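Fig. S4 source data, part A: sequence.
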Amino acid sequence: MNVVPEQDLELLEEYLDGALPPGEAERLRGRIGREPELAAALEELEADRASRAAVWSALEPDEAEVQRFAKRVTTAARRTEVWGHVRRYARFGSAAAACLLLGYFVGWAEQGRGPGGPGRPGGTSVNQVSGGNAGSSGARSSGRYHVPVGYDESGRPITQDFDTFEEAKRFADEVRWLQELRQDYPLILREQL
């Protein structure tokens, strides 16, 4: 740039911005016509402004880019909202599962209390296999293995007797499975039985 005083450069900038009062702008135009250095400085300032404007306009997105960006922002916002709902329901589901698991373990722990199970008089718990002559070997007579299946009116266990441990265990497992099924689906089993 030509050697122009700083004060004149500020006047030229204000002139290009349109910030000079009309009388002062008229005087500056007169000086620009008489002083070639001032005219050259004005041309350089105009060229600098034009190149900056070109750079800024090149950086501005077109309408299609603006629409794509807006769509990405909207999609991201919706995705965040959906995941917020999923997390909220997952917390509820986790809490419900924890309560069910806790209830299951409390029930499981209560099932084994006392000699006859919870609320039952003495004897073995329902669906536990007990042997009659545990010390002897080989096949024994009927009644060696006893599987309780319920209780009579006086509270004594009702048992089913088996010759082999495998038969007794299979029967006890089936009875246990039916009792669990009956707890899960009480109406269906009542109708069929």
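Fig. S4 source data, part B ends here. Residues 182 and 190 are 8 Å apart (CA to CA).
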